[in-house]
Design a protein that fits this description.
alpha/beta, Deoxyhypusine Synthase, 3-stranded antiparallel β-sheet, 16 helices, 11 strands, 51% helix, globular
Length: 373
């Protein structure tokens, strides 16, 4: 009995030092976040900084929820890209659309969630919970995307990563002309060749504006099937080269599934031998018991082949608002890890896709030989 009791009481003692005014974020997280979701957040910080940012880990991130309007693109996502801590991204189109406001020098303001929305509508003010901005911001950004997407370089079918890379070059140039510094996630991703995918390209104001151009007869086409193959190729390359793959999921929804489905695409659909992602880190406010994908646990993902079952201990779900967790995780990582050399995966898309295609062709040939017996 005594031995079993000692086994249960073998964890670290809860005996924190007093919080001080001169503590940095990393010290605060390590010493004061000892239980409940505070402890999950500490585990998230440590998983990201100590394991996912190892040199051989390719990190994919998914973005859901209105993060860029809240300024998290500038405060967190751009520094993570600049330090080589994020290698590829799947985002809602809305996050990229609202991110572009800042790169164009347009303004968003802190407001009130208790405002009279009828009065705001009359005044020409748009509200995202407690963020306010002028309706003209939408019109200006719409015009920007229609103008650049009318250029000849966009008049062909392309993956959403190619579209965002080309659009990011225009946003970066606008930042330069306006003498703005590090304002747009799209621009930073372009400069560091981080591919950004949108799992539902028609489900945003960017897609709405591109749809109008298609109606006008222009040749721009976003190819979601190309996105499926390119993202699977990124993950296959990470694992096939002897490295590892980690996913950092903010929120849930379609971007979460798109990041995770890379492994079933490789294993189930293509039939190429693989085990799943090595690291799983999610920040969410969704419950698992409703059956939705946003709240699905890493253990459930194992049953789909999305997560390597042997790596399940290297997974953390943190039930905290992303606007709270992301700045803390970012600050912790910047304090604990030196910058990594950017992988510049956008520039390697053709090479990575060719490698995955070759692996799939071997499987196909075996299947064909088996079918002729």
């Amino acid at each position: 009995m005594a031995r079993h009791r000692l086994n249960h009481l073998s964890g670290a003692r809860i005996d924190p030092v007093p919080v001080r005014g001169d503590m940095n974020v990393a010290e605060l997280v390590d010493t004061a976040f000892l239980a409940y979701n505070g402890r999950r957040l500490r585990e998230a910080c440590r998983l990201f900084a100590e394991k996912m940012l190892a040199p051989d880990v390719t990190v994919g991130m998914s973005l859901t929820g209105a993060l860029t309007p809240a300024g998290l693109g500038m405060s967190c996502l751009i520094p993570l890209i600049e330090h080589g801590f994020v290698d590829w991204i799947v985002s809602t189109g809305a996050n990229l659309y609202h991110d572009t406001h800042f790169g164009l020098g347009l303004k968003m303001f802190q407001g009130s969630s208790e405002a009279d929305d009828v009065a705001l509508r009359r005044a020409g003010v748009v509200r995202i919970y407690d963020i306010f901005f002028d309706y003209k911001v939408l019109l200006s950004t719409d015009e920007f995307f229609r103008r650049i997407a009318s250029e000849s370089e966009f008049q062909h079918p392309m993956s959403s990563a190619e579209f965002h890379y080309r659009a990011g070059r225009y946003v970066a140039e606008r930042e330069r002309v306006l003498k703005l510094d590090r304002r747009s996630l799209l621009a930073a991703a372009y400069q560091h060749a981080v591919p950004i995918y949108t799992s539902s390209p028609g489900d945003s104001s960017i897609g709405m504006n591109l749809a109008v151009l298609q109606m006008e007869g222009l040749g721009i086409r976003l190819d979601p099937l190309a996105d499926v193959n390119e993202t699977a190729a990124i993950v296959w390359a990470a694992k096939h080269s002897g490295g590892r793959s980690g996913v950092f999921i903010l929120g849930g929804g379609s971007p979460k599934n798109f990041v995770l489905q890379t492994e079933p695409q490789i294993q189930e659909v293509m039939g190429v031998a693989e085990k799943g992602h090595d690291y799983f880190l999610q920040v969410t406010d969704a419950r698992p018991d409703t059956g939705g994908l946003s709240g699905a646990t890493p253990a459930e993902a194992v049953s789909w082949g999305k997560i390597d079952p042997s790596r399940l201990p290297d997974s953390v779900v943190c039930y905290v608002d992303s606007t709270v967790a992301l700045p803390l995780i970012t600050a912790y990582a910047l304090a604990r890890r030196k910058p990594r050399k950017p992988r510049r995966l956008y520039e390697r898309r053709a090479e990575l896709l060719a490698d995955l295609t070759a692996a799939y062709e071997k499987v196909r040939r075996r299947r064909l030989r088996g079918g002729r017996r």
